[in-house]
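Researcher: Good morning. I'm working through a list of sequences from a screen, and I'd like to move beyond sequence-only analysis. For each chain I'm collecting a predicted structure so we can compare shapes side by side. This is the next one on the list. No need for commentary yet; just the structure.
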Amino acid sequence: MALFRKKQMAKDESYYLASQWTLMWRKLKRHTLAKISLAILLVLYLGALFADFIAPYGLEEFSSVYKDTGPTKVYFTDENGKLCRPYVYKLEKFNNRETWTVEIRENTEEKYYLDFLVEGQEYKFLGLIPSNLHLYGLVNEAGEADRSARINILGADSAGRCIFSRVLFGSQISLTIPFVSAAISFVLGILLGGISGYFGGFLDTAIQRVIEVISAIPSIPLWLALSAAIPPDIPVSTMYLYITVILSFIGWTGLARVVRGKFISLRNEDFVMAAKLAGVSDFKIIVKHMVPGFLSYLIVNLTLGIPGSILGETSMSYLGLGMKSPATSWGVLLKETEDLVTVAQCPWKMIPLIFVIVTVLAFNFLGDGMRDAADPYK
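Model: Good morning. Structure tokens for this chain:
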């Protein structure tokens, strides 16, 4: 009994002496959806980081034979129905004399086996180490890497490129640049909104007038103007980064207004006045005393801003205003599905949409869990 009481006292002591971030982490671990979402996002970002290694083919590799073909069928049994090493058949074109069309079929005389750590297109691992090993690929009966046959687990696009590889490479753009945009908007919103609400006076008036002017600028015409103004000779991904960074300097206005209102309501509270009388600097009062008071809202705003930026990139690329081929992003991949005939005949081309939906939902659920964890009343 005494041992139990000691353990309970130690547990209570660790709870009351824990920092705010420690308490948030403990609450977050009890949120099932947030944990699942965090795991999903971790997998997606690891896939983006190691895309060159995981993807079986590079962005420039294609095969006209595999043009608009569905996911490659992998066989796990031989002709006698016995379990064997996974393999695929090579595809080939043939002339159908009945329909007088060229069709694609499996050549059952040519087997290629699925293997791991297969040599392929050269790349730099993490951008530093030269390598040509890929996570998986096809080898012939002699065990040698063979690029004449392909394994497209999510199908191929209209140029015969592997959609799975393009999704991985596209995630490097779709999961990183929007994150930068949301982070810049988040910092500007807190900084300028905090200055406006805390100091008031002329600074408040000037910042509010700037916010009103920026809020009146329509987004799509601005995208069109920026796309036309940036020199065309720079890389497409760099151009999109420029546009995204510029637009992030416009997306902070909504957060700034909310932060201003919070600061106005908090600047006359007793704990703020006590900190001022104790000689605490304005910067410390804002960072250590006022911002934690509505941290849950800030977390929600950030976690909603990131998927909002992802949807913005996808939408702009789909409309032809953002990323453009030969660069790859999830929006560029979805642009190939704007034709209803293509969607009806090649439904696997809609698979990138699943990645967009899962990512947005994961960020939303994670933000939900982080909001509950940051709320001191829950």
